[in-house]
Structures are given as structure tokens and as C-alpha cells.
TrEMBL record:
Pfam families: GFO_IDH_MocA, GFO_IDH_MocA_C
UniProt superkingdom: Eukaryota
Organism this protein belongs to: Naumovozyma dairenensis (strain ATCC 10597 / BCRC 20456 / CBS 421 / NBRC 0211 / NRRL Y-12639)
UniProt-recorded name of the protein: Gfo/Idh/MocA-like oxidoreductase N-terminal domain-containing protein
GO BP, sorted A to Z: NADPH regeneration
Lineage summary: Eukaryota, Fungi, Dikarya, Ascomycota, Saccharomycotina
GO MF annotation list: nucleotide binding; oxidoreductase activity, acting on NAD(P)H
All copies of domain Gfo/Idh/MocA-like oxidoreductase N-terminal, residue ranges: 5-120
The Gfo/Idh/MocA-like oxidoreductase C-terminal domain, residue ranges: 144-342
GO cellular component: cytoplasm
Length: 350
């Protein structure tokens, strides 16, 4: 039987409390949250009460929790500019670490994390959760029916939500991470698109800041050329608009039909398929219900990390620093392109 891994939480904010802790608690045979550290200690103490962590395991600094021999791995939920120093410390004490997305605040930091991770045997993962969405496996299977793939449209747009609890965090309103909301949320969407279609090679993009609260540009409209497969597409992302319906879909066009991943209703993702090489030969729309996952990929992501840690095999990790580097690199390319009036920009590789 796989061991129960003891989790040390670093950064006991909203997402630690509302998503990570409940997800760990769903798997008591795999995880036990045993220690916590937070910059503001009172918040770690409140978190400890809910999580059942004893007082002497609420630490005063990062070194203490990293050095706790009873902690099997660190789960860090921090503003992205702190990820690099957390990785360095974890490697120093030989402790596996899961970090929340985006991989880093800058491309230079992201590059350093990938290099450090490549040089170490430790399991290190970036939690982007969308890489683990249940719709991906289903959609990949359907894509085999419509090939060759020619193009795609990814659209994720929605109304501004002024009461959004995440929006109120000061580090989001004054972002040190490139792209602000475009990297904070956009890496999820990029994880989905690249999981189905491969890497972006180059982009032409225009970005814009709609809301002062966003602290940086908060919408992107782009065209994309994919690497290796001749596919072209468009990538649109932003939830800073006036009243409109939430519309999240990825439509993939092949020579023999289309596959659409429909995520507008998060509680009921769908994969829709039309087969046929022309209107004359078009089949009926087929609609596939996606297996429900209320954690939206977080649970399978944690189980994937559990397997990598318990087998001490970092190659099992899907959301590796190298894979997630690409998602931040796409955001960096959007920003560079927009700063140059939509000029075509190659996406940085590593
Ligand atoms: N995968 C997803 O869908 C998803 C969703 C939401 C968030 N997240 C990620 O989860 C992480 C936390 O986000 P959140 O929404 O929970 O925000 P949050 O509530 O503001 O949590 C941020 C945490 O970082 C700490 N922190 C802030 N500035 C710090 C500093 N200068 N030094 C040390 N610690 C500092 C905060 O400590 P204080 O309590 O002292 O401020 C807090 O514990 C982020 O990486 C975010 O990207 C992921």
C-alpha cells in the first residue's frame, strides 16, 4: 500500500483553506496535513485549527517547516515571486515540493526553477490543475476521429466580478508576476490548449488593461502558430468585461470534423463532436458528458504528485517545471507582441 504522505503547507491563504485542505482531506489514506507556516502567523494558527494541526507544528519561518523530518513534502501557495526561493530551500533540505502556479514571476526565475529541477532528482511540480482535467483524455480520444487537425479557437471570456475574493488580494492588485491576471489565470487555459494541441511556436497578440483593480493588462486577444504540427489558432482570455455570459470553450477544427471542449458551466463540462469532411457529409452532433470532478483537476494532480513522491520518480509528474515553463512563456510572448503593436513573437523555449 502507498504510504500516507505528511504535508507541510506554506502560505495558508484562501486557496490553501478552500481547495488544498479539502482535497487532501478527501484522501486520508494518502495525505495528512501535519504542519503549516504563514507570513502572518495568526492565519496559520486559524488554518491549523481547521486542519487539526497541533500548535507546535505551526512554524515561525520557512526554514523550520522545511527542516521538519516528519514532513514528507511541502505544498507552497505563495505569490509566484517566492517560488524560486522555496524551490532552492527544498532542494537544500532534500524535500519534494509542490508549488502553486504560475511557475514564477518572471521568465528568468522560471528558467532557474527548470534548471534547478533538471539537476535534482527531487519531485518538484507546479500546480496548474487544468492539466489534469478529466475532459482532456476524452477530447484526445475524439481528436483522433477528426484529423488531421487544422486550427483551433480558444475563448475564455466573462464579466468582471467585483466581489471576487481572489481579486481583493493585494499581491494580485499590485502584481510582481508578469502579466498579472493573464498569467495568474491564463496559465490554466494554456495548460488545456497545449495538453490537447502541443506547444505554441509564435504569437501575435494585443493585450489591454480594462480594470484598474487588475494592476496590469487583463485581457488578451491573439493568433497563434503551433510548433511541429502546422496548426494555427486563436487564443482569447479575459474576465474584465461588462455584463456578458461566461463563455469558455476550445473548438478544434479538423479536416474530418470538429471537437469542442465546453467549460462555460464548470459543474458540467462537455465534449461535443461533429464528424464529416463537409456539410454534405456531416454527422449529427455527439455530446459526451465528462466525468465529474468538483476539484477541477486538483485531486488528480495531488494523486499524481503522491505517486511521484512515494516512488521517488519525478518523471511521473505531468505538471513539471519544464511543462509549465511553456505556459508562462506564452504569456511573456503575448506581452512582448502587444508591446510591439502585435508583431509576431517566438515563444521562448528551454
Ligand atoms: N490553481 C488554482 O486554481 C488557484 C486558485 C487560487 C489561487 N491559486 C494560487 O494559490 C496561491 C495563493 O493564492 P490565494 O488566492 O490563496 O491568495 P492569498 O490568500 O493572498 O494567499 C497568499 C499567501 O501568500 C502569503 N504571502 C503574501 N505575500 C507574502 C510575502 N511577501 N512573504 C511571504 N508570504 C507572503 C500570504 O501570507 P499573509 O497571510 O501574511 O498575507 C498568504 O498566505 C497563489 O500561488 C495562487 O496563484 C491557485
Amino acid at each position: 500500500m502507498a504510504p500516507v504522505l505528511n504535508v507541510g503547507i506554506v502560505g495558508t491563504g484562501i486557496f490553501a483553506r478552500d481547495r488544498h485542505l479539502p482535497s487532501y482531506q478527501e484522501y486520508p489514506n494518502d495525505f495528512k496535513v501535519v504542519a503549516a507556516f504563514n507570513r502572518t502567523k495568526s492565519k496559520a494558527q486559524e488554518f491549523a485549527k481547521i486542519a487539526g494541526i497541533p500548535d507546535d507544528k505551526v512554524y515561525d519561518n520557512l526554514d523550520e517547516i522545511m527542516n521538519d523530518k516528519n514532513v514528507s513534502f511541502i505544498d507552497a501557495l505563495l505569490p509566484a515571486q517566492f517560488n524560486l526561493s522555496a524551490v532552492k530551500k527544498a532542494i537544500e533540505v532534500n524535500k519534494p515540493i509542490l508549488l502553486e502556479k504560475p511557475i514564477a514571476a518572471t521568465m528568468a526565475q522560471a528558467r532557474e526553477i527548470v534548471q534547478l529541477s533538471d539537476a535534482s532528482d527531487l519531485p518538484i511540480a507546479i500546480a496548474e490543475n487544468w492539466l489534469y482535467l478529466t475532459c482532456i483524455k476524452l477530447a484526445l480520444k475524439q481528436l483522433e476521429r477528426i484529423g488531421p487537425i487544422v486550427a483551433f479557437t480558444h475563448n475564455s471570456t466573462g464579466p468582471f466580478v467585483s466581489t471576487n475574493k481572489y481579486l481583493a488580494t493585494s499581491w494580485r492588485q499590485n502584481p510582481e508576476h508578469i502579466g498579472g491576471f493573464l498569467s495568474d489565470g491564463g496559465v490554466h487555459q494554456l495548460a488545456l490548449v497545449t495538453a490537447l494541441l502541443g506547444e505554441f511556436e509564435s504569437v501575435s497578440a494585443l493585450t489591454k488593461q480594462v480594470r484598474p483593480e487588475s494592476g496590469a493588462d487583463d485581457i488578451v486577444f491573439s493568433t497563434v502558430k503551433m510548433r511541429d504540427n502546422n496548426v494555427i489558432g486563436s487564443f482569447t482570455y479575459g474576465s474584465a468585461f461588462g455584463a456578458t455570459e461566461k463563455s469558455v470553450f476550445l473548438k478544434i477544427y479538423g479536416k474530418n470534423g470538429t471537437v469542442t471542449v465546453e467549460l462555460s458551466d464548470k459543474t458540467q463540462p462537455l465534449v461535443k463532436v461533429r464528424i464529416g469532411d463537409s456539410i454534405e457529409n456531416a454527422g449529427k452532433e455527439e455530446i459526451f458528458q465528462v466525468e465529474k470532478d468538483e476539484s477541477f483537476g486538483v485531486n488528480p494532480e495531488f494523486l499524481n504528485f503522491h505517486e511521484a513522491v512515494s516512488k521517488n520518480d519525478k518523471s511521473l509528474i505531468k505538471s513539471s517545471p519544464r511543462a509549465t515553463f511553456h505556459h508562462l512563456a506564452c504569456v511573456a510572448a503575448f506581452l512582448e507582441s502587444s508591446a510591439n503593436n502585435g508583431k509576431n513573437v517566438s515563444v521562448e523555449t528551454i
